[in-house]
Design brief:
seven-stranded mixed sheet, 18% strand, BirA Bifunctional Protein, domain 2, 19 helices, alpha/beta, TIM Barrel
Length: 573
């Protein structure tokens, strides 16, 4: 048997660069590619002093085999064809070690921590092992270190793998604990290049059903203790006991489930005095006066004449009268039916119509007729399309700039189901602002954002900044849906850590009785606090207020962000 825990506390607590706060995040199921980019963005945030605190990202992956610097793939025992049959992928990565497997039922942890001395990689690895050893002990499993091998072992075999990289004093990659994975996937490799030792899982050793939630909640305080962090700010995505995040559903499955059915949409709760049971009374600062002047009527006539849709109307935006009276509107492309059914959104959910290839030309004509210097383009989700509608986005940007070269184009895009090529297709057209809304805090993602993911959104925003550093990257949050103040502040830190420049924060207003109830009306002073904290975190601009929406004062937000987010000057195409 190897050595047990009892890591020298003086070694462990000397590992972080200081006794700072660490932010723990349980992200649920996230693809390896997206998690890798999220790691890189968080690492970059620490290296460039964009982020003030260390992170621990906890998640599960779909089936994947990763080969580190010490391996050449020889210890992966199946062909690429067989990998495809298994529903798995292979990645060659820049950590130490040989081949490892990640998959559902395995807890993967990526500590992104500043080290006081980057030469202390071995003490850092020993500290990670200690965290795992203490966590397993909480479930009655004795584990230990094995001389000459990295990882955590039991008498029945290896239970946790570790592979790390340290660059510019900041750690990447991390550990994988076999909680309750499908152990047959380990038969397709020599784990970590070791041919004569078996692997095991926490479920096999404990002899009982285990839930990822329990292991995550046990591990986080041990991580804080071993590494000597004075405080922790932890956000956990929702768990379904014994399951990971729900998968994305195809349109036909949603139809079969009744998501788009007339009967489901007809289910209307009882409303008294405009409020659902338990909802607070609407305060005076949330009351908006309709001002349907000449500019409003002219813009409405223009939109109908060009057969265009605006998100202002579809989403029931409270600022429609103000914005339209000023001649500004947010155009919604790709039709008016969304393939998702998010709990806060008033855009119609249903089976989309055929793609309208002439829509970009009509959108450009509207921008020209309105004389806009800043145009905002958004869309429904089109999960039914192979490219998510990204080509129509790209063409719309091109057509607007062909007609109005001096116009800044802001696009508010969906997540394209994590498709990097779709995102880069849009970014290649150099929009002045790339906006993708995170919408809510990590804990509420599952119940509010159908088929979306907090980790996916953060990875998308990081990718957008890398692809077009001269453009501004923007995201938005809605409050009043059940989140806590501290969770909003944590989300702001996350957005800044991955490179976001501009954030909008506004009050949730239930569009219909069938939508999510309003939890609370956030006081104006709290909105001011969000803006103040955002600026302290280093965000270039935070537009925060009860009536703020993603496109509210869009041009002003870009101007307020200042020279830190330069916009490319275009002279034509």
């Amino acid at each position: 048997m190897g050595t047990t825990g009892d890591l020298d506390a003086r070694v462990a607590t000397s590992i972080p660069a200081d006794s700072s706060l660490f932010r723990g995040r349980w992200l649920g199921r996230l693809s390896y590619e997206e998690a890798w980019d999220l790691q890189k963005a968080m690492w970059e945030g620490l290296v460039e002093d964009r982020a003030a605190d260390d992170y621990l990202l906890l998640l599960e992956h779909p089936h994947v085999y990763t080969v580190g610097r010490n391996g050449n793939g020889a210890n992966l025992l199946v062909s690429d064809g067989r990998l495809a049959e298994l529903g798995a992928r292979r990645f060659d990565i820049d950590r130490g070690g040989d081949v490892t497997y990640h998959g559902p039922g395995q807890l993967v942890g990526y500590p992104i921590v500043r080290l006081a001395d980057s030469k202390k990689i071995v003490p850092y690895v020993r500290a990670v092992e200690e965290v795992i050893i203490r966590t397993l002990m909480d479930f009655g499993v004795e584990s230990y270190r094995e001389a000459g091998y990295t990882g955590v072992w039991t008498d029945e075999g290896k239970i946790a793998a570790i592979g790390v990289r340290v660059s510019r004093h900041v750690t990447m990659h991390g550990f994988a604990i076999n909680v309750a994975p499908d152990m047959t996937y380990f038969d397709h490799m020599n784990p970590c290049g070791i041919v004569d030792r078996q692997v095991t899982s926490l479920k096999e050793l404990s002899g009982s059903d285990l839930y990822m939630e329990d292991v995550v909640e046990a591990l986080i305080p041990h991580f804080q203790e071993v590494f000597g962090f004075e405080g922790a700010e932890v956000q956990l995505g929702a768990f379904t006991r014994g399951q990971g995040r729900p998968r994305s559903f195809e349109v036909d499955e949603l139809v079969a489930a009744g998501t788009f059915s007339p009967a489901k949409r007809a289910e209307v709760p009882v409303v008294l005095n405009g409020r659902l049971a338990g909802e607070p009374e609407r305060p005076d600062w949330m009351k908006v006066k309709a001002q349907m002047g000449e500019e409003y009527r002219d813009l409405k006539k223009l939109m109908r004449g060009l057969d265009l849709v605006t998100v202002c109307e579809e989403a029931g935006c409270p600022n429609i009268y103000e914005c339209w009276s000023q001649g500004t509107a947010t155009l919604m492309i790709l039709g008016d039916k969304c393939t998702r059914a998010c709990g806060f959104c008033n855009v119609q959910t249903g089976r989309p119509t055929e793609l309208d290839v002439f829509e970009p030309f009509r959108a450009a004509e509207a921008v020209q007729q309105m004389g806009l210097s800043h145009a905002v383009i958004t869309s429904v989700n089109r999960d039914d399309l192979d490219d998510g509608g990204s080509e129509i986005f790209a063409q719309t940007i091109r057509e607007i700039l062909n007609r109005v070269p001096a116009c800044d184009v802001e696009v508010l895009i969906p997540d394209f189901k994590g498709d990097r090529d779709a995102l880069e297709r849009v970014i290649a057209e150099k929009p002045a602002v790339l906006n993708h809304n995170t919408e809510t805090v990590l804990r509420l993602q599952r119940e509010i954002r159908t088929s979306a993911s907090y980790g996916r959104s953060l990875a998308l925003l990081a990718r957008a900044k890398w692809a077009n550093p001269s453009g501004a990257v923007k995201s938005g949050l809605i409050v009043g849906m059940g989140e806590r103040r501290e969770e909003v502040l944590g989300a702001l830190a996350d957005l800044r850590a991955v490179g976001v420049d501009i954030v909008t924060i506004g009050q949730y207003l239930r569009p219909t009785p069938g939508h999510r109830p309003i939890d609370r009306y956030v006081e104006p002073e709290e909105f001011e606090e969000f803006a103040s904290v955002g600026k302290e975190l280093g965000l270039a601009h935070v537009e925060s207020g009860p009536l703020v929406r993603s496109s509210y004062h869009a041009r002003d937000s870009l101007d307020a962000a200042g020279p830190s987010v330069p916009v490319e000057i275009r002279s034509g195409r």
